[in-house]
Design brief:
By secondary structure, this protein is mainly α. The protein folds into 2 domains: about 60 residues, Helicase, Ruva Protein, domain 3 (Orthogonal Bundle), CATH 1.10.8; about 170 residues, Methane Monooxygenase Hydroxylase, Chain G, domain 1. Helices cover about 50% and strands about 5% of the residues. Strands 1-2 form a two-stranded antiparallel ribbon. The longest helix is centred in the last third of the chain and has 28 residues. The two termini are about 35 Å apart. One of its GO terms (cellular component) is m-AAA complex. InterPro entries: AAA_lid_3, ATP-dep_Zn_Metalloprotease, ATPase_AAA_CS, P-loop_NTPase, Peptidase_M41, Peptidase_M41-like. This is Peptidase M41 domain-containing protein. In the N-terminal section; belongs to the AAA ATPase family. One of its GO terms (molecular function) is ATP-dependent peptidase activity.
């Protein structure tokens, strides 16, 4: 919403059937939205009071989107989603610096999500290289579980790979974590029309190489972790399929 004065009375009313293309700043959940959604859920259930169950449903609704249990998904796809989300959950559980797991579900929500793992947000203001490595591994847990337990990979990890790519480029090119790049920082500009980069093609090649190497190491570590705990991954996945939650 750049360009509007902070003191001017501006009211914006808008509607869309494509929430997936909206700026993330417009989709951030807040306490007011959660409370309002919890009240609506309680009213639909004809409840006289708002309970914690209503608040939990409201948080899922605000973060993940509208629940779509009637969405047609094949048994094979549902199984893939279950093992993918279970991989995230198990990887996060056994990684020292990963965010604590809150819940995991394979109930489709919103326009794209076929399931998701939810974690207790990390409130640290600073992150170390070791912490970010574990977060990267946790994010790759779904793809690793598909490879190890199902023997084939799907397109379901696209969003995970996007997060990992951005996170790793930031470590290498912004936070100065790479010995090969050195103590340099090249923050990515928000200007979509910026075509030039503030470094040479040689430096760019080093950054790209470092990112690939770092992601490769994280994925190998994640595959090893999933191999060590594949029984747990299978147990959680089968429970998700059985309970349909």
């Amino acid at each position: 919403m750049d360009g509007f004065g902070t003191t001017s009375g501006v009211v914006v009313l808008a509607g869309t059937n494509r929430p997936d293309i909206l700026d993330r700043a417009l989709l951030r959940p807040d306490i007011a939205n959660v409370c309002n959604e919890a009240a609506l859920i309680a009213a639909r259930n004809e409840s006289a009071v708002i309970t914690m169950e209503h608040f939990e449903g409201a948080i899922d609704r605000v973060i993940g989107g509208l629940e779509k249990k009637n969405k047609v998904i094949s048994k094979l796809e549902r199984r893939t989603v279950a093992y993918h989300e279970s991989g995230h959950a198990v990887a996060g559980w056994f990684l020292e610096h990963a965010e604590p797991l809150l819940k995991v579900t394979i109930v489709p929500r919103g326009t794209a999500a076929l399931g998701f793992a939810q974690y207790v947000p990390n409130e640290n203001l600073l992150m170390t290289k070791e912490q970010l490595f574990d977060v990267t591994c946790m994010t790759l847990g779904g793809r690793a579980a598909e490879q190890v337990l199902l023997g084939k990979i799907s397109t379901g990890a696209q969003n995970d790979l996007e997060k990992v790519t951005k996170m790793t480029y930031a470590q290498v090119a912004v936070y100065g974590f790479s010995d090969k790049v050195g103590l340099l920082s090249f923050p990515q500009r928000d200007d979509a029309f910026e075509m030039t980069k503030p470094y040479s093609s040689k430096t760019g090649a080093i950054i790209d190489s470092e990112v690939r190497e770092w992601v490769g190491k994280a994925y190998n570590r994640t595959v090893q972790l999933i191999e060590e705990h594949k029984e747990h991954v299978a147990q959680i996945a089968e429970l998700l399929l059985e309970k349909e939650v």
